[in-house]
């Protein structure tokens, strides 16, 4: 079976004043129909760029897809002309961004903005599109949806705006929903509600979800498969269970150790562990393993040769010589 | 929205009062008595002069004089021109249409230049078009209107002989010929003012569009699969108009300043050239009234901009 | 990485990785990248030098009347031609330049002084004083400046002339009035700087260490608002030069025998058909001065105040 989305050897570079930033440097990610895959990593590891590249939403220039393919249902999106790409956006692949406060246009009502998406792809009349927009708002559990459809974004709270964004993304029944840190900008209580909503929408509409996050907790709650990225590369890939049970890459181990454990903190004195150091420069990435400088198990060979992503157990890949 | 307009109107009143205080202060601080021509004219006998001073209230305390002056101004009772011996309000009403016509047309021209050029340049930052437009804009607003006016007269009237350089109200033609002559004599003043404002507004539009273009909601619009033209018009330009309106409103005093100069160069019988000739003839009532009218016009256009702003930005009018 | 950097996720990386350089050097690096600004700085410096020292080399008097050389077109003897009294226009342009530049810089100084004062008071006081001062600032922004300028000069010129003489009187009046109408942007900038810096750590730290209010303002807040104020001040010089030329062009600025650039244009405008050079050279000088100052201001904005675009 061909995966719904198959990213192969993707390299995205950005030209800056100081040189070429290799933001995404050879990434392979496959997502099957109806599956929820999560990409985890620190800020600047290339996860957002990867997601934006799927829809070709990165600014080019300065960005450039240097190598690789983005196969959607077997067709490569990279060489696709702009017009065909527009037919994919929202209709086949939709995206929800991190900042609900700024992702909606403040000068149009939320209904107008959702209806605009629907009209673009479904060729409906204005009135029909507005009706559908109200239905979508009701679907994402916005109270009083048929009234609120003619409210402006500033009349909604952050969590409600994110619901609007999700309604807009789902309005044309996409096969894949990319959610780029959809809960990061929200209050903790709201975060859980939005994740729950995403899970529920997925069950009802059956689309695949690519969830990008830096929070391991979010991963555990939503995803089936997890991809860990570090400094523009995939360092580990596994099912959620396998990843949390037996993390293979020292970076993943560090990420899991850095999850705060309230249940343990109450009874024992457990220190929250942070990973020492910071992400290396993507201008001149170090030779060898990019995590070497921060790794507690570092060996001399780590600094000379780059470890490849290999299968360590069935369905469990890691890029580490350990 | 109606409430918003009302609120703006109420805010405009103190501004108008503030300007009137400044005007009156200037007048009161002025050495001698600006209206002294009447009151000190040796041809007028002393007792008549005293009566005149009393009737003008020149010897009253300052605040009483201010309120009397203000009520007179607001009632349109602007006095009598020393020079042309007509009521000042008559004089201004006669002259106002020409000023508004030239200003209005030139501002439309300015917007017609600034909007497309600014948007086109901002959507292609640092391209050849952007750089050429930017340089031309700098040249445009660095050229003072009195110099461009002279250059145009030199080129179109003196050298080429295409256009008349004196504006006439008594064109002895009828029908389409009258319109044609009128158009011909309006071209240069409108070009001078319009190009100057167009140049600075191009920069405003460009920078406003550049500010909006990198906002998140534009990426959202693109992710919806909208064509680039629709993203630009509905999600970039529409939003960029909001700061542009504010900047344009801030330019209104400069626009009227430019109009005075242009009227003077082309001898357009508007209130700007009226002001200059009144100053040269020491015609104080006319000077005061014209300045007051200019102040009212600026406030009126600011109010208009505020209403437009509220209409463009739902965050303002619906809060 | 916030959502606002979606379009260029590399911005942060690039900013962090740049080698540390001093602010002055960094500003110079950015200024240099603005080619028009650099070229303008050179041209402007040359013009200032010519205006300041030109009369040592071009020794013709500005009021040397020569009826045998009336309205002559440019020649070796008179590179900019002569006017209707046979006076050398080059000499008059050089002289007028000194007045224009003096007016420009003096008016800028007035505007910056008033602006910094009003902005600082508003920024320090909050509450009622701040509201009132900002209302006044907005009010001044909506004044019809040219008519008021004309009105004030009309009302006060004679009185001041009696006290300090014609040229000085007009100079003081013009500088004060132009400066008095251009302080508002500076006041807003300084006030905004106060508001944004007041809560910053280093100001808090200075306050905690017991620094007095004046000291905090003089040592921490004002230096930090210097960049935007320099930019605004540069533009003010150009605006003041235009304002002075406009007044002179309307025949209401300096007295007729003082050849400022605007006055030269005023005298030339009725002779356009047979002596275009008379208008073109002073006009070009105004244009070039204003253009180069504007470009330098733009370059300074890139260098000192990189956040703003307009």
UniProtKB/TrEMBL annotation, chain A:
CC per GO annotation: plasma membrane
Keyword ATP-binding (UniProt): yes
Main location: membrane
Keywords on record: ATP-binding, Cell membrane, Membrane, Nucleotide-binding, Transport
Membrane topology, from the record: Peripheral membrane protein
Subcellular location, record wording: Cell inner membrane
Gene Ontology molecular function: any one: ATP binding
GO BP, one annotated term: peptide transport
Pfam families according to UniProt: ABC_tran, oligo_HPY
SUPFAM superfamilies, A to Z: P-loop containing nucleoside triphosphate hydrolases
Residue stretches making up the ABC transporter domain: 7-256
Keyword Nucleotide-binding: yes
PANTHER family: DIPEPTIDE TRANSPORT ATP-BINDING PROTEIN DPPD, OLIGOPEPTIDE TRANSPORT ATP-BINDING PROTEIN APPD
Family to which this protein belongs: Belongs to the ABC transporter superfamily.
Name used for this protein in its record: ABC transporter ATP-binding protein
Species this chain originates from: Plastoroseomonas arctica
From TrEMBL, chain B:
Family note: Belongs to the binding-protein-dependent transport system permease family.
Family annotation (SUPFAM superfamilies): MetI-like (SSF161098)
GO BP: any one term: transmembrane transport
Pfam families registered for this protein in UniProt: BPD_transp_1, BPD_transp_1_N
Membrane topology: Multi-pass membrane protein
Record's subcellular location: Cell membrane
Keywords: Cell membrane, Membrane, Transmembrane, Transmembrane helix, Transport
Listed transmembrane segments: 9-30, 100-123, 135-167, 240-266, 286-312
Species of provenance: Plastoroseomonas arctica
InterPro entries reported for this sequence: BPD_transp_1_N, MetI-like, MetI-like_sf
Protein name per UniProt: ABC transporter permease
Domain ABC transmembrane type-1: 96-305
CDD domains: TM_PBP2
Keyword presence, Nucleotide-binding: no
One GO CC annotation: plasma membrane
TrEMBL record, chain C:
Annotated signal sequence range: none
InterPro entries from the UniProt entry: BP-dependent_transpt_permease, MetI-like, MetI-like_sf, OppC_N
Membrane topology note: Multi-pass membrane protein
Keyword RNA-binding found: no
Key word tRNA-binding present: no
Cell location: Cell membrane
Chain ranges of the ABC transmembrane type-1 domain: 97-297
Family affiliation: Belongs to the binding-protein-dependent transport system permease family.
Protein name, UniProt field: ABC transporter permease
């Amino acid at each position: 079976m061909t995966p719904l989305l198959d990213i192969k050897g993707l390299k995205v570079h950005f030209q800056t004043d100081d040189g070429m930033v290799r933001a995404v440097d050879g990434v392979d990610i496959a997502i099957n129909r109806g599956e929820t895959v999560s990409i985890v990593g620190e800020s600047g590891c290339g996860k957002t760029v990867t997601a934006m590249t799927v829809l070709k939403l990165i600014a080019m220039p300065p960005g450039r897809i240097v190598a690789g393919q983005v196969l959607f249902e077997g067709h490569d999106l990279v060489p696709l002309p702009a017009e065909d790409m527009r037919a994919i956006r929202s209709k086949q692949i939709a995206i929800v961004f991190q900042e609900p406060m700024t992702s909606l246009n403040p000068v149009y009502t939320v209904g107008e903005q959702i209806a605009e998406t629907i009209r673009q792809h479904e060729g409906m009349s204005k009135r029909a599109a507005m009706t559908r927009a109200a239905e979508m708002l009701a679907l994402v559990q916005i109270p009083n949806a048929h009234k609120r459809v003619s409210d402006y974004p500033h009349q909604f709270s952050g969590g409600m705006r994110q619901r609007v964004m999700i309604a807009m993304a789902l309005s044309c029944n996409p096969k894949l929903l990319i959610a780029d840190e959809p809960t990061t900008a929200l209050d903790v209580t709201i975060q859980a509600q939005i994740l729950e909503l995403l899970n529920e929408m997925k069950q009802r509409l059956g689309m695949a979800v690519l969830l990008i996050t830096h929070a391991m907790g979010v991963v555990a709650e939503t995803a089936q498969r997890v991809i860990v990225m570090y400094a523009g590369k995939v360092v580990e890939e596994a099912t959620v269970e396998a990843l949390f049970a037996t993390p293979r890459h020292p970076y993943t181990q560090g990420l899991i150790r850095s999850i705060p454990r309230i249940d343990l903190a109450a009874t024992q004195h457990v220190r929250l562990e942070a990973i020492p150091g910071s992400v290396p420069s993507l201008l001149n990435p170090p030779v060898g393993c990019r995590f070497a400088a921060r790794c507690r198990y570092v060996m001399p060979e780590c600094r000379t040769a780059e470890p490849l992503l290999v299968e360590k157990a069935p369905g469990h890949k890691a890029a580490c010589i350990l | 929205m109606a409430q918003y307009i009302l609120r703006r109107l109420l805010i405009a009143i103190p501004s108008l009062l503030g300007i009137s205080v400044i005007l009156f202060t200037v007048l009161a601080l002025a050495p001698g008595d600006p209206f002294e021509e009447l009151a000190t004219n040796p041809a007028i006998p002393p007792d008549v002069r005293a009566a005149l001073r009393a009737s003008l209230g020149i010897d009253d305390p300052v605040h009483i004089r201010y309120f009397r002056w203000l009520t007179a101004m607001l009632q349109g009772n602007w006095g009598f021109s020393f020079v042309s011996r007509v009521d000042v309000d008559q004089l201004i009403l006669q002259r106002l249409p020409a000023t508004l016509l030239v200003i209005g047309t030139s501002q439309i021209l300015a917007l017609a230049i600034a909007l497309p050029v600014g948007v086109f340049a901002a959507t292609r930052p640092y391209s050849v078009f952007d750089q050429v437009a930017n340089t031309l804009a700098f040249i445009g607003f660095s050229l003072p209107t009195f110099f461009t006016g002279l250059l145009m007269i030199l080129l179109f009237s003196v050298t080429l002989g295409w256009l008349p350089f004196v504006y006439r109200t008594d064109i002895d033609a009828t029908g389409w010929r009258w319109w044609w002559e009128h158009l011909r004599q309006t071209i240069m003043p409108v070009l001078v003012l319009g190009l100057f404002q167009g140049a600075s507004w191009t920069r405003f539009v460009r920078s406003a569009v550049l500010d909006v273009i990198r906002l998140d909601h534009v990426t959202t619009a693109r992710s919806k699969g909208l064509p680039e033209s629709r993203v630009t018009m509905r999600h970039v330009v529409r939003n960029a108009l909001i700061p542009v309106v504010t900047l344009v409103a801030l330019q209104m005093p400069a626009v009227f300043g430019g109009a005075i100069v242009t009227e003077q160069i082309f001898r357009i019988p508007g209130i700007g050239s009226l002001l200059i000739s009144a100053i040269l003839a020491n015609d104080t009532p006319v000077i005061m009234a014209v300045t007051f009218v200019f102040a009212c016009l600026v406030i009126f256009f600011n109010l208009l901009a505020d209403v437009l702003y509220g209409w463009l930005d739902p965050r303002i009018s619906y809060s | 990485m916030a959502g606002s950097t979606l379009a260029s996720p590399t911005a942060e990386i690039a900013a962090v990785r740049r080698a540390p350089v001093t602010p002055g050097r960094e500003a110079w690096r950015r200024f240099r990248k603005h080619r028009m600004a650099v070229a303008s700085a050179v041209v402007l410096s040359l013009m200032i030098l010519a205006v300041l020292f030109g009369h040592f080399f071009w020794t013709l008097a500005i009021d040397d009347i020569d009826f045998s050389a009336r309205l002559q077109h440019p020649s070796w003897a008179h590179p900019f031609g002569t006017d209707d009294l046979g006076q050398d226009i080059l000499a008059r342009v050089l002289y007028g330049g000194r007045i224009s530049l003096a007016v420009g810089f003096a008016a800028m100084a007035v505007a910056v002084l008033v602006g910094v004062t009003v902005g600082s008071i508003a920024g320090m006081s909050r509450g009622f004083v701040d509201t009132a001062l900002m209302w006044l600032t907005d009010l001044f922004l909506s004044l019809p400046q040219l008519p008021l300028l004309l009105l004030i000069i009309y009302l006060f010129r004679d009185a001041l002339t009696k006290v300090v003489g014609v040229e000085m009187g007009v100079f003081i009046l013009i500088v004060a009035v132009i400066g008095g109408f251009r302080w508002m942007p500076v006041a807003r900038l300084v006030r905004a700087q106060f508001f944004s810096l007041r809560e910053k750590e280093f100001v808090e730290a200075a306050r905690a260490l017991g620094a007095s209010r004046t000291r905090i303002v003089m040592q921490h807040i004002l230096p930090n608002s210097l960049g935007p104020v320099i930019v605004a001040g540069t533009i003010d010089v150009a605006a003041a030069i235009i304002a002075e030329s406009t007044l002179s062009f309307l025949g209401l600025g300096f007295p007729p025998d003082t050849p400022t650039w605007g006055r030269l244009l005023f005298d030339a405008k009725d002779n356009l058909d047979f002596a275009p050079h008379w208008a073109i050279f002073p006009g070009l000088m105004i244009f070039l001065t204003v253009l180069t100052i504007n470009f330098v201001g733009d370059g300074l904005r890139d260098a000192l105040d990189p956040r703003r675009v307009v």
